[in-house]
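Hi W., the zinc ion complex you wanted:
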Amino acid sequence: MKDLRLYDTYTRSVREFKPLNPPGVGMYTCGPTVYDYAHIGNLRTYLFEDILRRVLEFNGYKVKHVMNITDVGHLVSDADSGEDKMEKGSRRTGMTAWQIAEKYTEAFKQDMVSLNILEPRIWCRATDHIQEQIDFIRCIEEKGFTYRTSDGIYFDTSKQPDYGFLGRLDLEGQQAGARVDMGEKRNPTDFALWKFSPKDQQRQMEWDSPWGIGFPGWHIECSAMSARYLGSFFDIHTGGEDHITVHHPNEIAQTEACYGTRLANFWMHGYFLQLEEGVKMAKSTGGFLRVQTLIDEGYDPLAYRLFCMSALYRAKLNFTWDGIDAAAKSLDRLRNAVYEWGEPATADEEFIDRFVDQVNDDLNMPRAMAVVWELVKSDLPPAVKKATMLVFDRVLGLRLGEWQPARINIPPEILTLAFQREQARKEKRWADADSLRSQIASAGYVVEDTPEGPRVKPK
Ligand code: AMP
Ligand code: ZN
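Structure:
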């Protein structure tokens, strides 16, 4: 197999990827905080991770993919202040925090199906792993990295010389410019491992612990659950670019304190989808686009998948309706072409080689798509094209092999009109053919003449 090269944020370099224990690959993905629907920005990150996983599998590796569900502890501010997002969602909707978690976890899984994102081998919920998190905090405490304040147990980042390396954080600058109210924190970058429940109030989600009743901080779940399912040092850890500066440095700090490893061999990050230059899409600001929004606007969710493949995962991407429109048209062309190629024969090795060169070059999907379109335009026999495209689709995930034109949904009377029009054309009764075409059009359909004969589609 060819070399697979991936960008590692930790070393800020593209490096050759070699599994620690071939052919297995351990991969951990920071999953959704389930207090609301996922927006298509979040899903861009999960799409990048899906392509990564598919490329690893394409290279013959057996990927053990673990994804967490954050259903407790993620506070409104990443700096450990403000309300828990789950409890806030509970106030907004009138449901309990547990019901909210259930509802939005299901919605997230549905979005994954719509976008053909493969399910992780293991799902893990933060609230199902409270004991693991308590044990992990104990371990950090025993190594001397914690202190207690009136509202929780905190990680002392000043005790770790390389704290923040992943984010290349300027700690001295932060310390000097710490205008934010640090409360009882000793350093601006210190973070909560365990938060106490407020004295005067019972939280919906709270547990007993050696330190008092409360709930885990947001970062500890990932260190604890990744260690449980993948060990203390595994192949690849992924998330969105916002995690480079807070969440992932904190995960590394915890795991380094307890096990002395930097958690993962490769750290990979998907860059943000933005609404326009410099404006990120965020759940907290409201007014975000969901997969359902795209469906309501008449788009196939897989058009969004194709749209995301038009950019490198390491570049920000602007969402535009023109962009999704163009992707929908491309998807349509691709599906029709693949359908018309008929039954597959043997794939073309040279094309596959060229495709692999691109996907193995740090997941260069725009270039891989260029190879896809060259294949479409090539003069290879249709059966060879089909077989080759089905191999590509193991990475693309566009379900190209399954698609069929929506002929079955065309009402029989419209098909009859189309048949009569075809007869008229064969008999050169052009006026009749035109009038039949207009009748079809006024019923909301168009007839396209293809080399295989006429095809009726909704307008
Ligand atoms: P959350 O559910 O807020 O924890 O976020 C889920 C994932 O989406 C995380 O990996 C984030 O880094 C990522 N994310 C958040 N906003 C965006 C965005 N606008 N574009 C791409 N990824 C995002
Ligand atoms: Zn995480």
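The chain has a mean pLDDT of 92.

W.
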